[in-house]
Amino acid sequence: MNLSDIPTLTAQMGFTQRNDPHELFAEWLKEAEKSEPNDPNAMALATVDEAGLPNVRMVLLKGADDRGFVFYTNFESQKGQEILATGKAALNFHWKSLRRQVRVRGLVDQVSDREADTYFASRARDSRIGAWASKQSRPLENRYALEQSVAVWAAKYAIGEVPRPPHWSGFRVKPLAIEFWHDRPFRLHERVVFRRDTPESAWTKARLYP
């Protein structure tokens, strides 16, 4: 590549002109929904334990707007306990088909009971039964014990609606930083980060070296 190629690359970098990270994320997610073969809403969720040792696992994004990024889980799970203890988390979206990545860091609140109830009611019945049956993140003596637990709860809720367990709800990550990364030739990747001091503050934007 020579210097004459750089204006062409710069012309392709329109996303760096955007000033609202939530609108940009919505646009990228919509494009990922068209190109990713599986779970374009999959994201890595990072938390830390009481010793500061990090944990990371994949979860599914279930809502995103200017209030934050929502996912649901068993609050008695390891991730649930770590988030309740620290009130902080980080997320990472990687869309290989688009050669894009979005990193999110922020504070975490619980969603409202109404939001949790509405989402829980939308899940498949077997998934709702599973939320009662699984003691998520705790030792399981054997597979039969899990299957037996599922059978017990399925019998209990054989008729009528399956209510939401009191320990099952959602978290909303309220971002303090959102970084967008887009692969470019010759490692001239594009990185733009939006930051703010509090979830109520205005965003500032900066480019980063790749």
Fold and architecture overview:
- It is a single chain.
- By secondary structure, the chain is an alpha+beta fold.
- The chain has 6 helices and 9 strands.
- Strands 1, 2, 3, 4, 5, 6, 7, 8 and 9 form a 9-stranded antiparallel sheet that branches.
- The radius of gyration is 20 Å and the shape is elongated.
- Helix 5 packs across helix 6.
Supply the number of helical segments.
6
What integer value in Å does the Rg equal? 20 Å
- Overall pLDDT, averaged? 92
What overall form do the CA principal axes indicate? elongated
What profile does the largest beta sheet have?
9 strands, antiparallel
| Beta-strand percentage range | 25-35%
> Percent range for helical residues?
25-40%
Can you tag this structure with a few keywords?
single chain; 210 residues; alpha+beta; nine-stranded antiparallel sheet; 6 helices; 30% helix; elongated; disordered N terminus
